[in-house]
Amino acid sequence: MKLSYKWVKEYLDLNIPAKELAEKIERTAVEVDSVSRLDDGLKKIVTGKVLSMENHPDSDHLHICQVDVGEEEPLQIVCGAPNVAAGQTVIVALPGSRIGGNVKIKKSKMRGVQSNGMICALDEIGFSRDVVPKEWEDGIYVFDDSVPVGEDVYSYLGMDDDVIDLDVTPNRGDMLSVLGTVHELAAIYNQNPEIKEPEITENADVKANDEVTAEADPELAPTYKLRLVKGVKIAPSPTWLQIRLWTAGIRPINNVVDVTNYILVKYGQPLHAFDSNQIDGGIHVRAAKDGELFTTLDGEERELVSTDTLIADDSKPVALAGIMGGLNSEITDKTTDVLIESAIFNPSRIRKTARRLVLHSEASQRFERGINYDTVETALNEAAQMIAELANGQVAQGIISATDTPRELPTIHVSEQSVNKVLGTDLSTETIKDIFDRLGFTTVNINDGLDVTIPARRWDIEIPADLNEEVARIYGYDNLPVSLPTGRMGVGALTANQKNERAIRQVLEGLGLTQAISYSLTTDEKAKMFLTRESVETKLSFPMTKDHSVLRMNLLSGLLDDVAYNQARRVSDIALYEYGRVFFKDNAEQVRPTEVSHVAGVVTGNFVNKSWSHGAVKADFFLVKGMVEQVIRNFATNGEVEFVADDSIKEMHPGRTAKVLVHGKEVGFVGQIHPAIEKQFKIKDTYAFELDFALLDSMPKNADQFTPISKFPSVQRDIALLVDENVSNDDVVNIIAKRGGAYLVKTELFDLYTGENVVDGKKSLAYSLTFANQHDTLKDDEVNAIMEKIKKHLTDELNAEIR
Question: Which keywords does UniProt give here (predicted)?
Answer without folding.
Answer: Ligase
